[in-house]
Amino acid sequence: MELTDYVRILRANWMAVVAALFAGVILAAGWSLLQPRVYTADTSGYVAAAGSSDIGSSMVGNQLAQSKVRSYVDIGSWRSVAVFAIDSLGLAETPEHLVQRVTVTNPTDTVVLRVSAKASTPEGARDLAEAWIRGMVNEIGKIEGATGQTPAVQLIAGDSARLPTAPSSPNTKMNLALGALLGLLVGFGIAVTREWLDRRIRSAEGVESAAGLSVVGTLPFEPDQNGQDAPLLLRTDARTGHRAATAEAFRSLRTNLQYMKVDDPPRAIVVTSSLPGDGKSTVAASLAVTLAQSGQRTILVDADLRRPRQANAFGLDGATGLSDVLATRSSAEELLQPIAAVPGLMVLASGPIPPNPSELLGSERMRQLIDSLKRDAFVVIDSPPLLPVTDAAVLTHSSDGALVVVDTGKTTYEALGKALELLGKANGTALGVVMNRVPRKGAGALHYGYQFTDDYYGESVQPRARGKREPSRAEAN
Length: 477
Hints:
Layout: H1 3-12, H2 14-34, E1 39-49, H3 55-75, H4 79-89, H5 95-99, E2 102-105, E3 112-119, H6 122-144, E4 153-157, H7 172-197, H8 204-211, E5 215-220, H9 244-258, E6 268-273, H10 280-293, E7 298-302, H11 310-314, H12 322-326, H13 332-335, E8 337-338, E9 345-348, H14 357-361, H15 364-373, E10 378-382, H16 391-397, E11 402-407, H17 413-425, E12 430-438, H18 442-448, H19 473-476
Helix pairs in contact: 1-18, 2-7, 4-6, 9-10, 16-17
C-alpha cells in the first residue's frame, strides 16, 4: 500500500477515526477524574561551610560543601527525618509510607538540596516540605556536631515552601493529549484493518489485480435503483429531470465494448453476475437502450428463464417469448416487441417458464437463434447469475462473451473468482467486469475512488431576481 492508499482509507473512514479520537479523549478525561488529586510543594536548603574572611579558606570551604551535599541527599530518605516530620505535623502515617511521598535532589554543580513533597491538599504538601527540610537540618546538625566542635558544614533551611495552586497529578492536559493520540492511532488502525480484512469489491484496481480482468464500466448508484425494474435511462429524476452521469457511464461502457476488439467487435453479449441482486437485469436493459440510442439496431433477449424481468421493465407482454422460440412454437421475428420510447430497440421476452431452462439455453437451437439475431443487430442477453445455476455459463459459450456485473461494496472477490471459474469451465469468454452501484459522493465515493456529478452535463432552472439577468455557466466560466 502506498501513501495515497492510506490517505484514501483515512478519508473514507474519517467518521470511525473521529469516533475513536473522541472515545480516547473521553476515556482519558474519565480516568483523570477518577484519579486522586496530588499536590506537590518544593522547598530547598543551602549547604554552607563555616565562614572565613580568607579567600583561600573560603574556596576550600566551598569545595567541602559541594562534596558534603551529595552525601546529604541520602539523609533525606532516613527514617529519623520522617519521624521528625511526623512529630512536627502530628501525622498518623508510618515513617516508611511518608518517605515515599518525599524526594530530595541536588541540582548539578550546586550546594542546594531541593525537597519535593506530595500530599492530597496544597497545605499538606507545603507543610510536609517545610517539616522535612527542618528534619534534615536537625539530623545533619547532629551528625556534624557529634565531635563537640563547631560543625565545619551545616544545612541552612531556605525560604518557606510555596502553596501549590494546581495538582501535579493527574496531569489532565497531558492525559487528554495522550488519549487523543491513542484514539487517532486506534481509529486509523481500525480503518486499515477493515481495509485489509474486507473482501468486498471496492475498486477497479482490486478487480484487475485479483481477477486479472479489466473493468469496462463503472455505473453510479441511483437512489431509486433498488426495487425498480425499469431501465435507469428511461426513468425520470424528480429533482433534476435527467440522469446525465448515469447516461454518460453507459455511453462509456458502450464505447469500451465497441473498441474491445476493433477487427471483430462482439455482437452478442451475455450480461450476468455472480449472485442475484447485483443489478444485472437493470444493467442489461440500460445497456440495450444506450446501444439503440447510438443508432444501432439492438435486440434485448430475456434469457433468464427462472426469474424474468425485462417484460415488466418495459411494460411488455411476457406471455410469449424465448421459450416459445426454443420450443419451435413461434419464430423470433414474430415475438420481437419494439420499444416506442427507444427507436431501434426490440425486446424478446422470456415467455413461459420451462421446466428445463439449462437444457434449452445450452441447446443448438439457442446457438442458432443468437447467430441469426446478431447478423443485423447488436444482441444483449439478460441471463441468470452464475453461481446459483449453470444457465449463464452454457449460454456464454454460444455468444461472443459475457459482462459480469458486480455490486460495488457487496460482491466479494471470492464470489467473482468462483463465477469466472465457472465461465472458464464452460469455455465461455469473460469480456470484462461492470462495477454497478458505485457511490456518487460522500465517504463511500472517496473510498472507491470515483466521483459522479450531473452538474457538468446539465443545469437545473433557478429563479431569477426581477429586473436582473443571471449569467449562464458558460458566461461565468
